[in-house]
Amino acid sequence: MDDRRMLLPLALAVLMLVATSSGLSAAAPKHRATPKPGTLSAREARRVNARLTRRLRAVTWRWQAVMGRHRSRLGAPLDTRMALRFWRRKARLVRRLAAHPPHRTGWLCIHRFEGNWRDSGDPYWGGLQMDRGFMRTYAPRMLLRRGWANRWTPLEQMWVAEHAHRGRGYGPWPNTARYCGLG
To answer: Domains in the chain, ordered, with CATH?
Structure first.
């Protein structure tokens, strides 16, 4: 009889132990498979280098400012694939537009008669011979950031001349425009 008395509480203890252990495992959160070292989770894989996106945005904004266009905007965070695709596409488009100023052949002809793109002789600078007042009027930001026109790229000089051409035509270059057959 003593064995039976001992057996019943022992069976109840084992039963309770099994019940609590199965209940704990059901209440415990399921473990997710940990990724192998060197692999990225799905969320991390969607992230991109924000520094690259920031550089593309800066290039885009710089050429938009040179061409006199409004800045492009995107509300997405810079470390997303969508932002990278957007700024890469915009930078490509802006570079393509910047490479072809509307009166490029006219500016190249004027440049042939005026001087070297790096000409630093006072009072005129650059390949289109821009003076201080001209640069201050049509390119104040570039003047502050990059100095006189002899430090600008030929495309930047042509785009500044485009700004002047919108209001004054080829007036700032009367003789060379006549030599080139420009209005």
So the answer is: 43-98 (no CATH), 104-180 (1.10.530.10)
pLDDT digits (tens, 9 = 90+) for 112-141: 999 899 998 889 999 999 999 999 999 999
Q: Does the predicted model carry a pTM greater than 0.85?
A: no
CA 58-62-64 angle, 5° bins: 115
* Type of residue numbered 108: L
Q: Which pLDDT score is estimated for 85?
A: 96
